[in-house]
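## Example record

The block below lists the input lines for one assembly entry, exactly as stored, with component labels intact.
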Amino acid sequence: MKTNLRRVLIPIVSVFISLLVASVIILWIGEGGFGERFVFLGDAYRAMLKGAFGDTAAWMDTIIKMTPLILTGLAVGFGFRAGVFNIGAEGQMAMGALTATLFAVNASSFPAFIAIPLTVIVGMLAGSVWAGIAGFLKAKTGAHEVITTIMLNWIAYNITNWAVSGPFNDGLNNPRSPEIAEATKLPNILSSQATFMSYGILIAIAAAVVIYVILYKTSMGYEIKSVGFNPYASEYGGINVSKNIILTMAISGALAGLAGTLESMGLYYRFYGTLTSGKGFDGISIALIGQNNPFGIIFASLLISGLRTGSNQMQYVGVPKHIVTIIQSIIIFLVAAERIITSLLRLDKRKGGAA
Amino acid sequence: MPFQIPEPSAYSRYAVVMKKIRKQFPKVLANDDVDLYVERGEIHAIVGENGAGKSTLMNQLYGLYSPDSGEILVGGEEVVIHGPKDAINAGIGMVHQHFMLVGPLTVAENIVLGNEPVGAMDVFRYQKARQEVQKISQAYGLTVDVDARIEDLPVGSQQRVEILKTLYRGAEILILDEPTAVLTPQETEDLFRVLKNLQKNGKTVIFITHKLNEVMAVSNNVTVMRLGKVTGRIPTSETSPRKLANMMVGREVLLRVEKSPHKPGSEILRVDSLKVKDNRGLMAVEGVSFTLHEGEILGIAGVAGNGQTELIESLAGLRKADSGSVFFEGADITQKAPRDIRELGISHIAEDRFKYAMVREFSVAFNMALGRHYKHPFAKSGFLREEEIYQNAKKLVEEFDVRPREIHILASNLSGGNQQKMVVAREFAYHPKCMLVAQPTRGLDIGAIEFIHKTLIHFRDSNVGILLVSMELEEIFSLCDRILVMYEGSFMGEVKPDEISLEEIGLMMAGQTWEQVEGERA
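Predicted structure tokens for the full assembly:
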């Protein structure tokens, strides 16, 4: 079985199985006879589709939600490619957003065409520095990045909370920053009713393309993957292992920082204590479902955000929105335990090579 | 006398009969109607080049693959083997090239693992396990310290534990896949003693190898394979290494290397009182000095673990020198990084190919660019030039006979010998001025060894300076212009291959200096 086909099939089959399991649960919580339960099931999924893609506003909502997921997914997936487990996208996203917002609030003197790129750069830099700390510690002392990034998450959490409740408060005693300067707000592509969709999604997709090119087309990507696969052989091949670990972490953190920055610049126009709300951690699941492939990650983000926006609509027909958490968990479980799928599909026919 | 295929009525004389075994892999027909007849109580050698299908055949006997067609008979009875469990039940045990042992557990624990003696409430009875293991170990003369932890044992002892594991599970027929590839000469001799002991105890042994002197030393019968077919089956007493080599390779093979006289050029590498520590922080290289000239092969002989690995790694920039210095073309390169050293024109064939010399998850083509992946012709302004990388790989797999001729498959899908060819091809392709070569032919078959030896000589004749570390004395003797013998981190002396005998080098490898050896001559 070709590895490529396998990489595509596993997430798709996982999605189908999880929807099947969810269907059983929906049938079970439905009321009345057999026929009525099936009608209920149909209603539930129709509501979900409608909520996610039913009209322009629904589409826009799904895309708005998927934007930060693409970026945190890329952050984690890129790290995985280099053998680095960046569990700290949450903290890097928060630090990126906070720093970018801090800059953006005070950037009213710049014209938009300077202010916007500058703010983006500031946010990415902050994320990359935050992740770079963990990269540096791993490269120089061997401290495991899972531990250090988790600890850095807590530090970031407390710094940002302190900032928005104290020195960087909006003056109205809400846990949020003042609004960013007009010049730093990302313009909207589309608006419908009360929903506004900024150019953030295009930036996120562009980031995916850039990451794809780095990973597969450049000697930098060659080195990063090589270090991830076999640091000893990399050193032997003249690759600076420490440098590449720090670099990987910095790029990964820049992506997470960008996720936070775009949330501030394109959606909230300020920093909230709850701006990240687990989207950094979602990146881990997304990278997993997307099999660490930049384009896979875009689809995984679409899937997860679609499920989430759809789940709101599902509630109206009487299906608890937690069903979506269940679906999501089963997908992740199956992708992570890919053995289950491969044996289901009998993809694991004993492969051989010449002896 | 050619082997007469026995009548089915005579099958009970055979421990194993494999008839018309056929195994097709996606890209290659690994076994093409292979017949194997192994007599009860014999030591049977299966020889062949890398990729000849030897391991595939044995993996089918052990149930790791199932044959596409063909019959297997064990002790005259037809058997169907679906997995190792069936094989173990049929009394077959296998010792793989890479050991399957748990490092932190003791010898006894490893041997009983999976069939542990247990008492009430399934509590593991360690004392019982020890006794049982000791019993088997004494019965077959396989001495091991049952309480030692696996990770503290040398490779040879670990292999014994693997053999004991199969015996503990009641194996009557033992398969050993290239058992000597990882052993020192002494350990190899011990292994042969063990095998003969097993034979005396009525066991049947099948071992895969491509070292012909081993076949001659220990086996009763030989089956020779080439390109998935059996090309000969013969009693060992009726053949010779040369005949076997011809059957393996399908043409005349030179077992000795032809080379022109030693004409060293100017000094290229100079090492001055170099001290290097090993991973445990102990001094492994104790202040050695030597010079290497253009156009010569300088050999370092010695038993594995006497500092050769650390010396080469230090010269390649992979290990920091503790003190002393290294000069290349007059410039100090002692603390330089691997890339800078490669840039100067020094290439390196690393001893441990799994750890150092390749990225198993990369394709063959990508592996063949490792070390030059960042510069012309493989990269331009930071972007990889895939076309160049593929062209280079296509050329090299052809030139160095890497099989299969597939450059896009992962390196992990190549057999060990072909992985080695891939590494060697890449390092030769550098057009280096100086080569650090460690165990270049480990795990290779005769054809490939001959090719690599010829290439090394060719490079020497085109004025490259080559430092060769090898545990194979034959290799050192036939290739080197000068030989340094290393023992416990120091050189016991410098000799020329035509001025010393194998026995004398053996004494130096055991710690006698050249002066002492020379003194004993008189």
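DSSP finds 18 helices and 22 strands in chain B. Residues 185-200 of chain B form the longest helix (16 residues).
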